[in-house]
Amino acid sequence: MVKLNKIYTRTGDDGTTGLVDGSRRAKHDPRMAAIGEVDELNSALGLAALAVEPSINAELVRIQNDLFDLGADLATPAGAFDTSDFTPSAMVLRVIAAQVDWLETAIDRHNAALPALTSFILPGGSEAAARVHLARAIARRAERAITALAAAERVNPAALGYVNRLSDYLFVLARAINAGADPLWVPGASRG
Length: 192
What we know:
Layout: E1 16-18, E2 24-26, H1 30-49, H2 54-74, H3 97-111, H4 127-152, H5 157-177
Antiparallel strand pairs: 1-2
């Protein structure tokens, strides 16, 4: 269990941040950038959760918890306390395939009632959908940061799958919130 009595420690005043294994990284390190993007995504989901119905709010809160798992996963370099294949242990919290599977099931459930797309959609339609679309765009940025990290260091494959599937989930969720009545892109509409 996490216990935070003191919020400031002054240990980061030198421009570094501590990881779960005790090592320190520069605050601009790719690992820290990925963790920061996930944190921003989590905050955007908190904002989106304020504008949706209770059943969707519960889904978003579940995902927010998963994003803390993802942050913990990213904050624990490969092999720090676990096996080389990213198997979770009593010492390490890792994103697992079941979390990715849950997203896929939710995507399929929300998508089942939606009409097929005939055009790209504009991110909006309703306030709730616009908030979810904003979170989706941040999820894509988080994915880019995590894949950049994965190009330099080993990253849990389930973490990569999770963030990739999450942006798909958010796209479908925004469409479901709009009940399929999404504003459509009209190519060249403003050309005159």
